[in-house]
């Protein structure tokens, strides 16, 4: 089921030569195949192909771009079961979650294809008679995109679809730990008739590939999803050639639960959302502030539900939570739990590695932590949940806004007044009220503060790949 990994350069599938690394199945630790690493020659070819393709693709009508993208989305839906299986094999999440992600990716392609037909400019009334003033939208140019391992379909497709719809060409480097899902989606674009060179896929040593592409003058736009330190490094490199950037970086999303909620309903929603993809979600709720009057019963019920989650391989029927993506994440979870215990936290359930095969970690709930401990100040990116009490509105807002992250935030309350007040006071790019669903193809996805800038999704995601040109004529 796992495909042979190749580069896509100028419309051709090319085998890698020499250095690479194995792709591991997180459920077993066994190798699925070898991921080739690009050298300078491969990257030069990708840059040249993208530069040449951009000259003609930018002139392609929006109607034609939309037709190709609609076909690509249809092909991805037809191949959804295969692509979802590949995704689960290399990333580990349950097959049900993988299917939803692949269908979501197809929706993203379709939505961007439709939206590119509505990339309107405008006429600005002139001050001088006989003068016409126009604002036009044009594709920014060649795009270099870097995607992470936690959402092997969704993270790359937001970049691929946005760039292609806008009339840009793109070189995308998915994670070397989950490369095949992106490859299969690229195959859908190729089979849909996307011209050669518009979409190019490479893999390689991350620092080498990113630095090499950043130096290329022809690359005019960078889009990156990943950690804050790497995002800052790429921005410094982008400054040398003044490339435009979209940065979707780390988060540490607070979820504030007020004392007027239904405890059972809230606990069910939070458990389902928190342990999705084993907590390896950039907008996952990661700091749980529970108002004092419902703290004890909600923590107890949440821990009970968490302990009941069924762990197992993603392709196994009945699995509710799969493994972590790699052994580094298991070590990170162990460090978070160890630090929490040292700081007085009480482990309600979990707290250790699960089984002796693969990279599994138990759903873990820890209560009564100080705000200064590691779990409350650093994004865990895994199935470890800190739960702490609060008393007043002003207190919890100050605590929730205390970090330099601002990606997503959530609140659960039955009060319209409270929900409006929280949505205005919280410093975040996205806010969920009585829901953890803050991402759709047609809405902007992005953060503030050190969680990044710019957006993917929505009309804002298309505009990220466009330049504005003002034309005055007399």
Description:
The chain is of the alpha/beta class and 474 residues long. It has two domains: 7-250 and 449-473, Aldehyde Dehydrogenase, Chain A, domain 1, CATH 3.40.605; 253-404 and 408-433, Aldehyde Dehydrogenase, Chain A, domain 2 (3-Layer(aba) Sandwich). The protein has helices at residues 40-57, 62-78, 80-91, 95-115, 154-166, 180-191, 206-215, 228-239, 263-274, 292-307, 327-342, 374-377, 393-400, 416-425, 458-463; strands at 7-9, 12-14, 20-24, 31-36, 122-124, 132-139, 142-146, 169-173, 199-201, 219-225, 244-248, 253-257, 285-291, 346-349, 364-367, 384-390, 408-412, 430-433, 452-453, 466-473. The chain has a seven-stranded mixed sheet, with helices on both faces. Helix 14 (416-425) links the parallel strand 17 (408-412) and strand 18. Helix 3 crosses helix 4. It is globular and about 70 Å long. The protein starts with 6 loop residues before the first strand and ends with a strand.
